[in-house]
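A protein record in our archive is deliberately plain, so that people and models can read it alike. The record that follows is passed on verbatim for readers who wish to inspect the format.
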Amino acid sequence: MIVRPMQSWFRMLFVWNGSVLQTIIPQLIVIGILSSLAVLTHGRVLGEKIPLSTVPFTLFGLTLAIFLAFRNNASYARFTEGRQLWGNLLISSRTLMSQILCYLPDSADEAGRVRVANTLIAFTYALKHQLRGTDASADLARLIGKQRTEELGRKYYKPVAILNDLRSQLAAPNGVVQETDMTRWMLDKQINELERSVGGCERIASTPIPFAYSVLLHRTAYAYCMLLPFGLVDSTGIFTPLICVFISYTFIALEAIAKEVAEPFGLAPNALALDAITRTIERSILELCGREIPEEITPVRPYQYT
């Protein structure tokens, strides 16, 4: 995720870090070359004049812009929901840990509280790695031990298994919670909220925007940008490459942004900063327990958090 302070209107014109421009430069170069060829040949291909004017491009460009806006709204809705789910996960984790610390009997074993805190933190790391398809062994081993990590290695849904461990630790006859059914219900309610967050994240990760929809938008945007020089060359002359590259930048960049934010749990520059979020949850839980907290995540590049 790109996190940087707001710039003045002038500096925003030259922002590089965080802009998708660096990822679409090859496409813009191709459009620039094609536009230059259209100027040199006066809109002819193999000696034949392509009969295009600005009128159809005006009408079609408006339709394409509406189509791109709809796609970007759908992609951003996925991004926003993913952030809300991880925000709810942070709230539920803090609340559960606070309730355990405040409502446990005075005779509760301190080691039991530490075990519960580590299990809760391990759950968030397991979910992050599951969503990104990365190996969670290193993070889990330092929190719940090598033996349990090896056991979880044979499971497909590690976050759910860890939540089940957490519930078992709280509900066992000799477990951490030895209070009334009301206390157990209150704690179990927060675990249910964590499970809802897992289910919501899995739904987003396993249900992408329909592929045919993405292909249609991609083909349409590029076809429009490649035909545009032949429709403008008669009216704009030598300025055709500049105008076509600028218009192409708008359409291609919108399509690239939509692609990035549609997968909010990935590693793209504009995806959610799950590393930073999980570290925040870990720091928050450890601080509630009065334990030493690790350092905050630093950007991997200027202004970019993972």
Notes: Strands lie at 44-45, 48-49. The CA atoms of residues 62 and 99 lie 55 Å apart. DSSP finds eleven helices and two strands in the chain. The longest strand covers residues 44-45.
